[in-house]
Amino acid sequence: MALQVQAYKISSPRNGAIWTLSTKQAVVVRVGGADSKLGVRGVSLKVNSSLDGTASSTTPVKLLGQVTEVNKDTFWPLVNAAGDKTVVLDMFTQWCGPCKVIAPKYQELSLKYNDVIFLKLDCNQDNKPLAKELGIKVVPTFKILKDSKIVKEITGAKFDDLVAAIESVRSS
Questions:
Q1: Where does the record place the Thioredoxin domain (predicted)?
Q2: Is residue 96 among the annotated active site residues?
């Protein structure tokens, strides 16, 4: 499945402009490399997604470096659009100490593995239905998906286990 994106307006983030993209499928945007020198940090964009062609929803997605923050509406469209790429989901809460400790290391992993899609889900009240669907019991929990299926899970801030799991799924 090919993903086509048409950009209707792209302006310099330094000027405070909003980037508007349109597509019939989910969009995964990664910021890094040369783009990092431009000062791109808190970019907001709207993702138009309709995998079956019957409905289209517009939902804001925040980009945090190369880690994309998702919510209950954007998670599955982004995972489905990833196809056979490895997807890693960090399920966290704002109040969780271990979540805060591992967050910068998770960010570093997103820079190291540029063939992997890194997502982040705040398991707040708004996203509770998705967190429940994914079977979260503790935070942080990392789910690794391939072909839209969960293939590995790491509970707790176990960085070495997370790296080993990513390596294992990437090589399979």
A1: 36-171
A2: yes
Q: What is the CATH number of the domain that holds 55?
A: 3.40.30.10
pTM above 0.90, yes or no: no
Given 43, 96, 111, 169, the catalytic residue: 96
> Does 59 fall in a domain?
yes
For 9, phi and psi rounded to 5 degrees?
A: -155, 120
Catalytic, 99? Answer: yes
- Pick the catalytic residue: 28, 82, 87, 99? 99
Q: Is residue 1 part of a domain?
A: no
Range of the domain at 102: 6-171
- 107 falls within a domain: yes
Q: How many domains does the chain have?
A: 1
Closest listed residue to residue 44, CA positions, set 11, 5, 76, 78: 11
Picking from 120, 124, 18, 29, the residue whose alpha carbon sits closest to that of residue 69 is: 120
